[in-house]
Design a protein that fits this description.
binds ligand C2E, alpha/beta, 46% helix, globular, binds calcium ion
Length: 277
């Protein structure tokens, strides 16, 4: 049994997940997905809270499976991590993002792009070196690339996180703490990381309209982030009411289906053209 997911790809139900055979064959196919040209990045805009301009987009990975159709990252990133080829997949994401940014630059589109890094990539002592070589190769200004790392991934191995963050900050790459509020990071630790941005997890945004607690948490997080010199992005904004509350609470940027779903690079250009008056 399968059903269409919110991003247009297929979600397999748990019976499928439990099927070791299916996992193994998927794993074997994923190993070659990058070289076969089956991986693809979709891009979702981040909108300025006040003004509504687009400062940046987030690159979200998709796998165009020859038989199963579009598969979302929640399904195959864990496989790539478990079977030891997340580094390859992650490197493909870095290269493809830089290639796309180079192409957009040539078309006069100078937009910032955020990529997602997994916990395992943070264990690679040369990660900053690899990203640095890619941006030089494609002539990308370092401050146009953002790296999003979830709070829980950042907390898995505090020392390597610090090392990678420092390495990336040294070459001028912006860092963002993703899914904030879902992990258990200490404020003292957060202060030591050279991050520029904090993304409030969708679970808080979802509850804003009904839960005074969610509202109090978002309010506190925005205040805290601003006090530490961090910009705030709220993810998963789906309703006008959520947007209004988030802007009132001071969220710097907003992202969610209310504005745009993740889309292929070509559609993004059309979408941006449609928005310019
Ligand atoms: P994330 O980084 O928290 O990304 C946000 C997810 O929420 C995306 O799901 C996005 O499509 C979805 N989303 C955006 N706006 C809305 C909304 O208004 N409502 C709802 N219901 N959902 C919304 P997606 O693309 O399936 O990605 C899932 C996760 O997979 C990401 O969560 C990220 O942690 C991971 N991921 C995606 N691309 C990569 C990648 O290149 N590398 C790694 N390591 N992880 C990735
Ligand atoms: Ca993210
Ligand atoms: Ca997120
Ligand atoms: Ca999230």
């Amino acid at each position: 049994a399968k059903r269409a997911g919110g991003n247009g790809y297929t979600l397999f139900e748990s019976r499928m997940d439990a099927d070791a055979h299916a996992q193994l064959s998927l794993q074997a196919e994923l190993r070659h997905a990058a070289e076969r040209g089956e991986l693809m990045l979709y891009y979702q805009p981040k909108i300025a809270g006040r003004g509504g301009q687009i400062h940046s987009v987030e690159a979200l990975l998709r796998w165009r499976h020859p038989r199963r159709g579009l598969i979302g990252p929640a399904e195959f990133i864990p496989l790539a991590e478990r079977f030891g080829f997340i580094a390859q997949v992650g490197q493909w994401v870095v290269e493809e993002t830089c290639r796309q940014m180079h192409e957009w630059s040539a078309q006069g589109v100078h937009i910032r792009v955020a990529i997602n890094l997994s916990a395992q990539q943070l264990r690679d002592a040369d990660l900053a070196g690899k990203i640095g070589r890619a941006i030089r190769c494609y002539d990308i200004a370092p401050d146009r690339l953002l790296c999003e790392i979830t709070e829980s991934a950042a907390m898995e191995d505090v020392e390597s996180t610090q090392r990678v963050f420092d390495g990336l900050a040294r070459i001028g790459i912006f860092l963002s703490i993703d899914d904030f509020g879902t992990g258990f990071s200490s404020l003292g630790y957060l202060r030591r990381l050279p991050a520029k941005q904090l993304k409030i997890d969708r679970s808080f945004v979802q509850d804003l309209e009904t839960s005074p607690d969610a509202r109090a948490i978002v309010d506190a997080v925005v205040q805290l982030a601003h006090a530490l010199g961090l910009k705030v992005v709220a993810e998963g904004v789906e309703t006008e009411a959520q947007r209004a509350i988030l802007v009132a609470l001071g969220s710097d940027e907003l992202q969610g289906y209310l504005f745009a779903r993740p889309m292929p690079a070509m559609d993004l250009l059309d979408w941006m053209l449609d928005r310019t008056p």
